[in-house]
Amino acid sequence: MRKILAFTFVMALVAALSSYLVWTEQRPVAHYLSDLRVTLAVNEGEPADRGNLLGIQPELFPADYQSLERLHLKLAAYLQNARDQGLVNDKTVVVLPEHIGTWLMLKGEKNEVYQALHAKEAMNWLSASNPFLFARAWISATGDNRTEDAYLRMKAAAMARDYQALFGGLAKEFGVTLVAGSITLPNPRVEQEQLVIGQGALYNASLVFNPNGLPVGQPQRQLYPIYDERGFIEPGDENIVNVVDTPAGRLGVLVGSDSWYPDNYRKLNAQGAQLIAVPAFVLGRDTWDRPWRGFKSVSTPPEISLKPEELSEGEAWRRLTLISQQPVSQATAGMSVFLRGQFWDLGTAGHSFLSNNGHVNADGESRGARLLNVWL
How many CA atoms, within 13 angstroms, populate the side-chain half-sphere of residue 264? Predict the structure, then answer.
């Protein structure tokens, strides 16, 4: 009798495991209607032959990442709208927001991931439907928060390929220089014109693509990750602040609140940066209007006198981002572009703004996709 019960239990276990493995391979695609509308919120200056900085503040949702085709449809629609308004030419530098590439971890997932109400629930579905990838990533995780590290690491190789295919493809399709926001990957670097990953820690990094769709220089790693991310994202080498040549001038990229540190601008000045792009991301639906909590890393520049809670988050961003505020920055123009949308119960905030010869012009609206443009 015991043998029969044991055999029955083993067979039931095998059947359950087989069903689970079959379930993990199923990836039905749900119908999804993308909102392709975008508003030109800021348009400063007059067209000339020096080009322009064009910021795209997209409104994105988890389902936009179900396939590259779906995400391309939305981003290409924004760029086509800009082209139709005469804002795209062969000297245009397009700036996308921070972490727009990080969410490529959601590509090709089950509908339960996109339909979840809470981020924790979505991540549980993500790991449950990719058990072997998640287990391998968890074992090789290096961050203090192994679970968050594993979520980002488990699809890293595919994410790097998708990032270059999508954003390099958009740069080539529209003939622009494109600052492709940022993506979180293990030890990202460019080898033989391809973005590749390595072993070790995760970095939040931004890559620029030229009008031929090829990477320009090496990824700019974030130097000072915020507190909430330091458990799984490693700070980059603070001595490495890259400047690349574009048809519109020499361009520097500062990821997120790296733009708050005066020393970074001095490093860009030393390399002749004329333009500065800041891909940015602020978590929390109402964070922009709430009291500023202070610097988001362990390091506070000695020359900064602002104190926490004496101004709002949004005011702090505009005060601390020192683009074209001489003598700290000698760049003529720059732009901070934020990721907007709704990722489960994780709200987003941030109003994109640009600076031209020391004058700041901000988008005051919080809903919908936005375009910001400054002629150089």
Answer: 33
**What integer best gives the mean pLDDT of the chain?**
90
Alpha carbons 73 and 51: distance in angstroms, whole number:
25
- Number of CB atoms found within 10 A of residue 7's CB: 10
Give residue 4's pLDDT.
Answer: 60
In one letter, which amino acid is 294?
A: G
Distance of CA 277 to the CA centre of its chain: 13
CA angle 320, 143, 231 (to 5 degrees): 40
CB 329 within 8 A of CB 269: yes
pLDDT digits (tens, 9 = 90+) for 172-228: 999 999 999 999 999 999 999 999 999 999 999 999 999 999 999 999 999 999 888
pLDDT digits (tens, 9 = 90+) for 97-119: 999 999 999 999 999 999 999 99
Rg (CA), the chain: 22
Please, where are the H alpha helices in the chain?
2-25, 68-84, 111-115, 119-128, 131-140, 146-153, 156-163, 169-174, 262-270, 313-320
Q: How far apart are CA 226 and CA 172, in angstroms?
A: 33
How many Cβ atoms sit within 10 Å of the Cβ of residue 42? 18
pLDDT higher than threshold 50 for residue 20: no
Nearest to 369 by CA among 345, 352, 347, 344: 352
Q: What is the DSSP string of 283-328?
A: ESTTGGGSBP---SSS---TT----TTSSBHHHHHHHH--TT-TTT
- Please name the residue that has the structure tokens 């988050």: 313
Please, what sign has the CA dihedral across residues 303, 307, 308, 310? negative
179/209 Cα distance (integer angstroms): 7
pLDDT tens-digit readout, 301-322 = 888 888 888 999 999 999 999 7
Q: Could you tell me the domains of the chain?
A: 29-375 (3.60.110.10)
The SS3 of residue 109 is: coil
């991931």: which residue's tokens? Answer: 113
Cα 360–362–366 angle (5° rounding)? 165
What's CA 210's distance to the chain center, in Å?
A: 18
